[in-house]
Amino acid sequence: MLHLVKPLRPQLRRLRWAHFKAPKLPKADAPPKPPNPPQKPESFTFHDHTWEDQYSWMSKLNDKVAMRHMDMYMEQEDKYTEAVMYGTDRLQSKLQSEMASRFAFDLSTPPLRFGPWLYYRRVEEGKQFPVLCRRLASLHDEFISHNSPSAGFDFTSGKRIEQKLIDYNQEAQRFGGYAYEELSEVSPDHRFIAYTMYDKDKDLFRLCVRNLNSGALCSKPQAERVSNLAWAKDGQALLYVVTDQNKRPYRIYCSMIGSTDDDVLILEESDNNVFVNIRHSKDFRFVTVNTFSTASSKVFLINAADPLSGLSLVWQCEGIAHCILEHHQGYLFLFTDAAKEGQSVDNHYLLRSPVDSSSSPRRWEDVFINDPDWVVEDVDFSHTHLVLTLREGRNFRLCSVALPLPAGKGPVQLKELHPQFLPLPKYVSQISPGPNYDYHSSKMRLTISSPVMPDAVVDYDLSNGNWKIIQQQNILHERTRVLYGTASSASIREETLSTENLNSTNEVSPDDEQLWNDLSEFYACEQYDVSSYDGVLVPLTVVYSRKNKKEDQNPGLLHVHGAYGELLDKRWRSELKSLLDRGWIVAYADVRGGGGGGKKWHHDGRCTKKINSIKDFVSCAKFLVDKEIVHENKLACCGYSAGGLAVASAINQCPYLFSAAVLKVPFLDATNTLLYPIIPLTAVDYEEFGYPGDINDFHAIRDYSPYDNIQKDVLYPAVLISSSFNTRFGVWEAAKWVARVRERTIYDPKRPILLNLTTDIVEENRYLQCKESALETAFLIKAMES
């Protein structure tokens, strides 16, 4: 279940050397020279291979001498980046102003109904962090507004209708100016909220429980390293999971709220390869416990009314499998991608079994007959309906069917249940379920995303098929045909954001498209199937401004991710508008290893087949140039985390193909990170990138690892890397890669390799987000002009 409040992230947390502010440098005739860090060669041998690493000292965090050298080196990198970007100050300022002007001024989340309450968060004027609030839905309906949820006064009680629950500005004072919340769960009786706050001094998440009536913090439970929460016993008990020193979730405790007794240990997994996760069913009848490793996956059930009564095993299978268990009116429903009869399956499927089943092992039956045309990507339950996200080819659909489902008939075709479809706009790239805490509500909240439409938060009424956009970033000003970004949110008429539609098909009429407020009149979206090196077709999405596109003249930015079976983020992003309006093409390569194509698509781009992700990306880049969609000398690329690995590896393979690249906290030193992890890795990470202990995996890692395959004596594109110590893959990876690229490749001051040192840039800090995006955009524009 998603959090009630989005993760609240902090102001820029400076690195230990990042307090250093390089002085403004006078413009010099000669280009600035890049730093030259010391080389301290160290030899490594593993399996049948020996290699030398001149920069391994950068990752020795416990070596004080090495870290002093690292401090000096990072200061030099900071100076060099500022010197290279000298002259772009005005451009960065202009870009930052453009991007900031497109943010909605309304900083409230739309109120979410949970029982008798409406919960929401809002940012008060002049404050850095939000406030979590609630109000009774029954009080003064005329004051309940998505635009101004805090308005209203109850004259009968003499109190404001709004009740402040957590002020994260005060939380920041408790946690040293840092207010990052990871988990947040309101108890089913609405008396307490359990949440975890990041303690930066100890580098862990601390559990807090607050009484919502008094506002006071409860004296217990008090726990550290908490990774999961689940309420039980109608809010009288809280179950939580803690991690070990390697951040492996391994223990489940039960705490009785208000009791002075010690918390009870319910489960402890001593096997270092097994991970633990918990969640409550939407009706709060059960708490499900998932344990998984590379060997097996298991699901246990805890009776929420008696959380100390023990665990009962309801499902197990071999290998790592995705398993989500729900309960509905006496039936357990399992949504999983586990193998069937020993055979791997390509997609998820839905099973059910009576709660009181006496068979051993428990018997499960399929709910739906497999339909290759409609792939079930996600499910969500309410008291009266089952909501399904479907994929039809590369197109997403969303429908609901009435509950309970027919019993005793066995698997059925979904079409036999007369699904009701929500009419969607064109080019939907993602459908994200909202928190949807209220099991008995007839409305389901969703976020609809598209490359040519700002995210639309929608309430879908399951009882009659009506749908309403309750929040969407400002689109048009007073219904005029002004390009997106020039109007304030206050100018948007209520009817623009509150439209209803009774169409129960998935066909979108022209009127429907108007109501979705997409930007396809101004920005085109085209989809291609690109043939990769082995003939496999790779989806490629291309977005451009209709006004500014010119044949074979446009610069382009190609995005990629391609890991963990995750969807590539193709949502409309306001910062990319600055490139689109300057004539850039923005493209997205859905390479193997990513999501949207089933388990086989994911597995064909991971581990020993990771090279497929990289070659797919290269094929898409060549397609953009060969088809003259992008000018042959003006193609840039961008990757985040594992996507940075794909980009850097593609540059190693075809450095001539790209003119510039932006890498955000990239995974670059695969061999050393997987062999000698500084930050603990999980079984899922090794499944994704390979087990170095296996000789075949080891050779595959060596073949794709960006740091180990930098070409000698060739010209590389201009590269901007943003990295930090506060990320999954530390700054030492980026620093080593930058140093080795400069050492081995041909130096060209017009194609600099830059290291931009930041900390966790987060959604909530809009100023910093704009600043970083402006720097990246200015870098790309400068690189193309060079």
UniProtKB/TrEMBL annotation:
Keyword annotations of the record: Hydrolase, Protease, Serine protease
Enzyme Commission numbers on file: 3.4.21.-
GO biological process, one term: proteolysis
Biased composition (Pro residues): 29-40
All copies of domain Peptidase S9 prolyl oligopeptidase catalytic, residue ranges: 574-744
Pfam families with a match to the protein in the record: Peptidase_S9 (PF00326), Peptidase_S9_N (PF02897)
UniProt GO MF annotations: serine-type endopeptidase activity
Peptidase S9A N-terminal domain residues: 38-473
Region listing for Disordered, in residue ranges: 23-45
Tree of life domain: Eukaryota
PANTHER family: PROLYL ENDOPEPTIDASE-LIKE, PROTEASE FAMILY S9A OLIGOPEPTIDASE
General function of this protein: Serine peptidase whose precise substrate specificity remains unclear. Does not cleave peptides after a arginine or lysine residue. Regulates trans-Golgi network morphology and sorting by regulating the membrane binding of the AP-1 complex. May play a role in the regulation of synaptic vesicle exocytosis.
Protein family according to the UniProt entry: Belongs to the peptidase S9A family.
Protein name, entry field: Prolyl endopeptidase
